[in-house]
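Customer ticket, subject: "Can you confirm the structure for TetR/AcrR family transcriptional regulator?"

Message body: Hello, I'm evaluating your service for our small team and ran a test protein. I'd like someone to confirm that this is what the system normally returns, since I don't have a reference to compare against.
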Amino acid sequence: MPTPARTAATPASPAATPRLTSKGRATRERIVAAAAGLMFENGVAGTSIEDVQLAAGVSTSQVYHYFGDKKALVKAVIAYQSDTVVGAQEPLLGKLDSVAGLRAWSDAIVRLQRSRQCQGGCPIGSLGSELAEIDDEARVDVAAGFSRWEQGIRSGLHAMHDRGELRRDVDPEALALATLAALQGGLLLTQIRRDTVALEAAMGAMIDHIASLVVAVPA
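Agent reply: Thanks for trying us out. I re-ran your input and got the following:
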């Protein structure tokens, strides 16, 4: 006898997620933005649902209406920070196909850290360092955010490689990952030291290394 077909709508399927009105979307986005700000300043453990409710100007029942529990809210915050951090850089990430473009991107990140008085570190990295060992699903979500960031770097380096501007034996994938690692290490030390010296040194050394791999393009 054939197995009866499962119903199309399951808790994990898109069909089971109710469509939000424009007002509902605005309320949900306000809650996520408030939670992201609080978690960036105070950490995930230091942010309660009540804190978020007060900061967003909504009721506790509204928070639980859009997010069944704190874990679901944290997941939304990770997505929000990934969109915010990487999205804000996309105009520069689209120009990382030259050493000049890499330096302009690095300089913009340094200026941003100075404007923040070197506080807070990386919004995505801060979430990852707090959650990686206690919430594997959150760790995967943070890794996806970093992958999106790395992809922007990788695309520029691949373009340079495809045009023959980088040595043929260079691996753009490894260079992109190393660049992101240098950035994250520099941001962490910037947060701890309250200056951008380490960030400038790490990014400067990495971009100088990439510059050393550039070759003249045949006419």
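A couple of notes from the result: The two ends are 71 Å apart (CA to CA). The mean pLDDT is 89. Feel free to reply with more questions.
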